[in-house]
Amino acid sequence: xxxxxxxxxxIMGSRSDWETMRxxxxxxEQFGVAFEARVVSAHRTPDLMRxxxxxxxxxxxxxxxAGAGGAAHLPxxxxxxxxxxxxGVPVQSRALNGLDSLLSIVQMPGGVPVATMAIGTAGARNAxxxxxxxxxxxxxxxxxxxxxxxxxxxxxxxxxxxx
Length: 163
Ligand SMILES: Nc1c(C(=O)O)ncn1[C@@H]1O[C@H](COP(=O)(O)O)[C@@H](O)[C@H]1O
Fold this sequence. Notes:
Its EC number is 5.4.99.18. The protein is α/β, with parallel strands linked by helices. It has one domain (8-158): 3-Layer(aba) Sandwich (Rossmann fold). The chain has helices spanning 18-30, 46-56, 74-79, 99-106, 121-136, 140-159; strands at residues 8-12, 35-39, 63-69, 86-91, 115-116. It has a five-stranded parallel sheet, with helices on both faces. Helix 4 (99-106) links the parallel strand 4 and strand 5. Helix 1 (18-30) runs parallel beside helix 5 (121-136) and helix 5 (121-136) packs across helix 6. The structure holds the ligand Nc1c(C(=O)O)ncn1[C@@H]1O[C@H](COP(=O)(O)O)[C@@H](O)[C@H]1O.
């Protein structure tokens, strides 16, 4: 984990979400964005969650990525207690394949938004990229990195033979 001041807080409801959420972290590492990663749960550690959300901005974070599965209240509850943008990642639950997580995160009441990604690893990866895009608005070097990433991605798709 980079040892400079974290700009992105990556939180998840349980250690069991790490396999998914590490995809977000890998993107941040790839772009050299300083981050922190922690387990914080609205259900199991409500006081910690409140503290985390309340203190995030003061600690220099600019974006929060919150992943949770099942009754995934974490992203919305964190969003209710910070002005920072919150990106929600619906973790793929075993019982309902992540549809429960998706609906829990995406159906916020008007007034408290959570930017909801796709279910599972694609969502976690995109959460990392979305955080990079948000930070890149005011950071030209990061913007250049993002542009180069998109170009490499396009070239890779164009040059991939179909067998
Ligand atoms: N959805 C939440 C919250 C929350 O929203 O506060 N806290 C834990 N969880 C979720 O419970 C699932 C099962 O957790 P365990 O594997 O620890 O039983 C995880 O996907 C976690 O995100």
